[in-house]
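It is worth pausing here to work through a concrete case rather than discussing structure prediction in the abstract. The textbook approach is simple: state the sequence, then state the predicted structure, then interpret. We follow exactly that order.
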Amino acid sequence: MVVAASLVVVAGAVAGVLAAFDDGGRASDEAGPPEVSASPRPAPLPEVATRSAPATTASAPPSPSPSARRTTTSAPSEPAKKREHRTAVAGRLYRHPDSQVLEWVRSHSGDPRHAVIASRIAEQPAAVWFADYAPDTVTARVAAVTSGGAALGRVPVVVPYAIPGRDCGGHSQGGAPGLDAYDAWIDRFAAGLGSDEVIVVLEPDSVAQAECLPAGERADRFASLARAGRVLKAANPRARVYFDAGHSGWNAPGKQAAWLRQAGAASPESSDGIFSNVSNFHTTADEVAYDRRVLDALGGPAGLGAVIDTSRNGNGAPADGEWCDPAGRKLGRAPTLSTGEARIDAYLWVKLPGESDGCKGRPGTFTASYAYDLASS
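Step two, the predicted structure:
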């Protein structure tokens, strides 16, 4: 069984090759999460999707939700030239100054693992996740990240992760209480994007894991994702929005592309392409090949590309399929916007190396022993 990319489980025992340094307790090995937090198929829908109607109603149907009203019709088609995507974002990625690894580095200058973790992990730019449903503060928190990047002329990576039914009720469950609430949360998220370059990794697992949903709920989710892409790109035309393609060990390219198309990923009004391997371990070469196959099957403008999470894939995925902090993994390629690979826009560290899946530390927390294992392998 393929496990969701972002799934975490109930924390197990803390482990690691430097177990002696863990004897002082979690206070010396883990950093607490910062305010901005961590890591039968329906018929094809139109590119601009709308919510499905409820299966049954006890009375007259309610008025359409605000999001449904906004998405029932599409804007007139733009000329072909305007619909072509620009080239990939240029420049350098942004390292946000508030992260769990930086918190640990600042607090543990005397730890023997400090130099390795500081130089090989903490100095690298990584994505900032927004995994809690907090509509009153999300705009300001997103703006803090995007304005920080803009001030330095660098490109931040942000991850909205609040889709209802997240993780199919598993250990990473949570998110907005419903799709109308999610649509409103995305509006507020988009309001913080600013006007400079930013990469948005939209809802890990939301498409690849959608098979757990009944057909009607799946269609509704895809409609909300398509709307989210349009809202994000309308709020900041320089934002690049990527949709969930799972990873090379999960769904077949054709199946994944069919779902992505329903979720708006082939539409330039919603999407700049796809992302893969978030929180997983598959090799970069496997992901490049897989993403190109998905893009070919997806269709859409020639400018659609892919971004790949390379944070922990240096040794590839374990042969036994283990996904929870598996031993023997190592850091992958450094984050970059210059991959040298056709249709691959960036290698990103979406999952921060050292943030545990729940076996070498508490789920979602930075665990120094795990980080050191990855960085010194």
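Step three, interpretation. The CA atoms of residues 39 and 250 lie 19 Å apart. Confidence is low (pLDDT under 50) at residues 7-27, 34-87.
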